[in-house]
């Protein structure tokens, strides 16, 4: 589904490559953690998958396509197969929850009818059905990230890329976000999540690819953040891990007090928090109880349009109902202040979400940072 062959990425003006001859393959339905210290190359990997950056050498295949063969004009269509979630949520501060999620469908020209069905279905899936008319600043950090996740999956992408999605959240809220991502993965979406939070990685027991200075030093099928096992160096081993793998035994560890700081790579394995255990168990139970309904790529509009008013009656709305039925506990503690209202970045949100190619809009701000956070 995603393959890097000898990928080296060198940014202009730097001496050391951000990624150095990476070989890796990620299969359909996998949940993969990309771990490593700040600057190790995690975000670069995600930006390369999105074709926001070009490799200096090597080839990348995503969904069967060599990225070199995708013209700039076609990049926005290509990106519709992918949802992206960032550490800082990147919601439109003056739009309601509903409108934030609807935004990504409007930009690609989906019909009003499609939007009216797909948005509530997706908000229900992420546990925010009751909050569709709220503004982002009226939500907790975890809820804001749920909105961002809803926006990323409302068009049923095949791949969800998450760059430090829990980086601004407390451990309990992070656990809830992880359970949501696990459920999305269980329904068939390939999930790649960059993080340097050891506790989360240890809890989830999924595939772990570890980067150090732009090189893969470990690729473990069911790893933790720090492991006593001998690291596997080199290309990813072929894995046939199914999307909805049963809960690993690690979840059964006895619960203990939450660990507030889980970010040090060499720290000992943190204790399981009660909430993570419960949230993850609930999510997995819900996911396995539900009929697995793979999130297929939604039909892509035949033409490019940036006009939100354009109606496309040819596109029918496939329901996402039933994919996740996990009850979501209310979250009352805001973690982050609302996004800045005067943030000029919102003008290029469509670019940041990969819905428009950078530079596609005539009134673009010229801003270069359109990808996942670093
Ligand atoms: N646009 C850029 N220009 C120059 N250097 C960059 C750019 N983006 C990332 N880098 C450098 O590439 C390396 C990897 O960065 P990044 O992929 O953001 O790592 P991570 O996400 O793991 O923190 C770092 O040394 C970083 O400074
Ligand atoms: Mg980063």
Automatic annotation (TrEMBL):
One of its GO terms (molecular function) is ATP hydrolysis activity. The keyword ATP-binding applies. Residues 324-374 are annotated as: Disordered. It is a peripheral membrane protein. Keywords: ATP-binding, Cell cycle, Cell division, Cell membrane, Membrane, Nucleotide-binding. Its main location: membrane. Residues 365-374 have a biased composition (Polar residues). InterPro entries: AAA+_ATPase, ABC_transporter-like_ATP-bd, ABC_transporter-like_CS, ABC_transpr_LolD-like, Cell_div_FtsE, P-loop_NTPase. Residues 2-238 form the ABC transporter domain. One of its GO terms (cellular component) is plasma membrane. GO terms for biological process: cell division. SUPFAM superfamilies: P-loop containing nucleoside triphosphate hydrolases. It comes from the Bacteria. It is found in: Cell membrane. Homodimer. Forms a membrane-associated complex with FtsX. Belongs to the ABC transporter superfamily. Part of the ABC transporter FtsEX involved in cellular division. Has ATPase activity. This is Cell division ATP-binding protein FtsE.
